[in-house]
Amino acid sequence: MTIEIVPYSEDLAPAWDEFCSPAMNATFLHTRRFLAYHGNRFEDVSLIMMEAGSIVGVMPAAFVGENRHVVVSHPGLTYGGVVHQGRLSGTRMIDAIGAVRTYYAAQGCTKLIYKAVPYIYSDMPAQGDLYALFRYGALRTRCDLACTIDLNHRLPMSERRRRGLKKATEVVTLADDPANLQELWTVLEQNLARKHAAQPVHSLVELKSLLNLFPKEIQIRCARINGCVEAGAVFFNSRGAWHAQYIASSERGYQVSALDAVFDSAIREAAEAGVRYFDFGTSNEEGGAVLNDGLYRFKQEFGGGGVAHEFYELDLA
Questions:
Q1: Beta carbons of 45 and 63 less than 8 angstroms apart
Q2: Domain annotation covers residue 290
Q3: Is there a domain that residue 210 lies in?
Q4: What CA–CA distance (Å, rounded) separates 195 from 7?
């Protein structure tokens, strides 16, 4: 049967989210409830793939700025891509990507930037989209490197991390109360400004709103010293992977290796919850061309290995 492309509209939000819930390669980031926090920041051009009257796939996408010739899936997400429940496999995925290509080209678009979902966020193998992109001549134009622990096959923690954990446990108190977000955000903002002259992707208001929408998926872990938050992480969690979206420490926190205690506790908690992967996120700069080796080694020493975040460009002309 032929795959029909339907442009997303707000009245389709319930159907979209209902489809994403059991999808084999979706996380809460793909839902309209999450995407809606962007407001009018991007012009949404997401697509729904239909076959015989049923949804077989969805793809979040938007334009960036005034450029209506380049579609990104998705500029406000770490990863985007085609989400499906298993019906888009093999040649059906090739057909789906072909239908997406034809639709956007008819709208006057010339390029699709496709941010593939890393395999750790799929419930089962679901990389047929990468093969389909290859078939249509897409080029991999960027690759970031994340450090991830396979909790079923964890590498040994380094002696340096063991020493750090011992130092931290002597002085820090761990907390997971969302009420600590304000203090942690101050540490994060100061940390990013001090080290990278940057700001968090989300604002505090946005993250508070998202926390209210996704209290099970978005969690906070902090290390307090003498009653003050000195280090911590904000986690964006999915069924099979816990992901450290934000990591921050004050100078005092670094002195006592406070993050070692935060991560050791969170890793053990994830394993007890039956989660397969614990993802520290990427450690790249300059569009993936530079690896912050010190940051990556810090993460790797907890017992992790590399996971690629791949970006592809598909010519629509």
A1: yes
A2: yes
A3: yes
A4: 42
Q: For residue 277, which phi and psi values (nearest 5 degrees)?
A: -125, 145
Q: Which amino acid is at 88?
A: L
CB 59 within 8 A of CB 72: no
SS (HEC) of 5-24? EEECCHHHHHHHHHHHCCCC
Count of beta carbons in the 10 Å neighbourhood of residue 31 = 23
Residue pair 156/198 in contact by the 8 Å Cβ criterion: no
Percentage of the chain with pLDDT > 90? 91
Whole-angstrom CA distances from 293 to 145, 198, 285, 298 are 11, 19, 11, 8
Q: Is 315 a member of any domain?
A: no
Residue range(s) defining the domain that contains residue 189 = 149-308
Count CB-CB contacts under 10 A for residue 274.
9
74 and 105 housed in the same domain? yes
Q: Rounded to whole angstroms, how far apart are CA atoms 202 and 314?
A: 28
Give whole-number Cα distances, 151 to 156, 234, 265, 272, 274, in Å: 11, 19, 13, 10, 9
Question: What are the C-alpha distances in Å from 225 to residues 95, 163, 213, 219, 222?
Answer: 56, 18, 30, 20, 10
If you ran DSSP here, which 8-state letter would residue 37 be given? G
pLDDT, tens only, 63-72 = 988 889 999 9
Task: Identify whether residues 216 and 107 lie together within a single domain.
Answer: no
Q: For the chain, what is the domain count?
A: 2
- C-alpha dist (Å) from residue 208 to 99, 103, 107, 265: 38, 37, 36, 23
Kindly report the CATH number assigned to the domain that includes residue 89. 3.40.630.30
Residues 256, 278: Cα–Cα separation, whole Å: 23
For the segment 132-146, what is each residue's pLDDT rounded down to a tens digit?
999 999 999 999 999
Identify the three-state secondary structure at position 197: coil
